[in-house]
Amino acid sequence: MAKKKTDNAHKATNQHGAGMDKIVALCKRRGFVYPSSEIYGGLSATWDYGPLGVELKRNIQNLWWREMTRRHDNIVGLDAAILMHPRTWEASGHVDNFSDPLIDCKDCKARYRADHLEPEIVASRKCPACGGEMTQPRNFNLMFTTTLGAMETSGMQLYLRPETAQGIFVNFKNVVDTNRVSIPFGIAQVGKAFRNEITTRNFIFRTCEFEQMEMQYFVKPGTEDEFFAYWKEERLRWYVEQLGIERDNLRTEPHGPDALAHYAKEACDIEYRYPHGWEEMEGIHSRTDYDLSRHGEFCGKEIQYLDPQTQERYVPYVVETSSGLTRAVLVTLLDAYREQPLENGDVRTVLRFHPNVAPYRVAVLPLMKKDGLVEIATELKRDLEEDYNVFYDQQGSIGKRYRRMDEIGTPFCITVDPQTKTDNSVTLRLRDSMEQRRIPLSEVADAIRLESRNYQARA
Predict the structure, then answer these.
(1) Per the UniProt record, which residue ranges are transmembrane (predicted)?
(2) Which among 42, 72, 153, 360 is least surrounded, fewest beta carbons within 10 Å?
(3) 209 among the known binding-site residues?
(4) Per residue in 280-311, is it b (16+ CB within 10 Å) or e — as a string?
(5) Was 197 annotated as part of a binding site?
(6) Beta-carbon neighbour count of residue 363 at 10 Å?
(7) pLDDT averaged over the chain?
(8) Is 321 marked within a binding site?
């Protein structure tokens, strides 16, 4: 039998009762995620982020960036090129180690990763699906290749980067020489990565093109265990406090000795309870001095750090936090999804996004398109847009508009009605409780700010 769980994504449900099929349908219907190149039949394992999806993704990215580079005085940012010198990937070990052992069934053509099958199945070469004969394991490199130069036959072969970390390591000396940083310090980066995945599955969980949020934290050898423990707790806290992920749906899972990457001394995953089971959403790795030492060896220039206090030279150790931005989008959608029975027998679909990540923080809704309500609502929208992404909607009944906002996760709705013209008050509606209350028009911005600040305690 296979070691890994079979892909039952369209049958399984998550802890709130949402199968992956419901998330996929909602994302397409409301403009979060579309199949890439859909008009041509689509392209496997690639996805496009629609108007709501790109706002959700950008909000998560901005929260991560603020957490790393604003709330930690000793972390700076970087944006390295996707295309790098091919020696980079020789030094990093990707050319030799970044491959999957694959086995194909000669009869039913099913393909398996050999390391995901029980050893006796690999040895017997019997297909788990049909019992047919299978091939011997063959290594399949996961890096995409391209050519730099006018002629494909004579150009330099390059790789689309399979991770963003190496762009940080090769710029370590540049950052130290041009910025006032001292160990311990970190370098953070968000960017695209590409992997020629054989088994893409579960919507945007595993794709060929994705975005990473990575931070490499450089420390003095001997202190790496302390910082490994620190960053494990910090990253877990961030998902709960900033993204609003339920703590019971998160866990940390250490890597056993046999599961460690070739560069790692210690590693653990922050895992989420997906509909298909517990799997990784972020990795924390203690990488020792492997990366800087290897790049120093391959470029012929030793990469060291000079301690300005002690004048000691050494190759720093690294503690890495590596999170998938696109995977964080999926986790946020799954964790926020609710189906709530109503008193009239209907069911309300709602995305309970934390206000920090919601594509729209607030919706402004004039009750009618007459009596000057549109003008008041439009002016209010302009005022709120200084601080928030605001949705404006004047079409349909107010009940249907509320339901639309619930389904895309807008935390707050402001309704402008005839009473607004008499006493300058509006209705504030809260998404999660559906509570409605009158507040002064002049206090709308403050009310949204206060409700957003107190959201975590209420949730």
Answers:
(1) none
(2) 153
(3) yes
(4) bbbbbbbbbbbbbebbbeeeeeebbbeeeeee
(5) yes
(6) 23
(7) 90
(8) yes
- Is the preceding peptide bond at 51 cis, omega within 30 degrees of 0? no
Residue 71 labeled ligand binder: no
Q: DSSP character for 136?
A: P
**pTM of the predicted model as reported, rounded to 2 decimal places:** 0.87
Q: Which token pair is 6?
A: 């079979």
**Residue matched to tokens 């990366």:** 291
Does 323 count as an annotated binding residue?
Answer: yes
| Domains annotated on the chain, with CATH | 20-98+142-333 (3.30.930.10), 99-141 (no CATH), 360-458 (3.40.50.800)
What proportion of the chain, given as a percentage, has pLDDT over 70?
93
Q: Do the annotations mark residue 214 as ligand-binding?
A: yes
**Residue 301 is encoded by which pair of tokens?**
């220039």
Identify the residue with better confidence: 369 or 366: 366
Residue 195 labeled ligand binder: yes
Say what the pLDDT of residue 185 is. 97
| Angular region, 424: left φ>0, alpha ψ -120 to 50, beta rest | left
- Annotated binding residue at 226? no
Cα angle 161, 162, 167 (rounded to 5 degrees) comes to: 50
- Buried/exposed code over 390-406 (b: 16+ C-beta within 10 A; e: otherwise): bbbbbeeebeebbebbb
Strands 99-104 and 111-113: antiparallel
Which amino acid is present at 93? G
Sheet hosting strand 436-440, strand order edge to edge: 390-392, 362-366, 412-416, 425-430, 436-440
With vertex at residue 336, the alpha carbon angle to CA 335 and CA 337, rounded to the nearest 5 degrees, is 100
Strands (E), 63-153: 75-77, 99-104, 111-113, 138-141, 145-148
271 assigned binding-site residue: no
User: Is residue 117 a contact partner of residue 2, using CB atoms and an 8 Å limit?
Assistant: yes
- C-alpha span between 162 and 450 (Å, rounded): 42
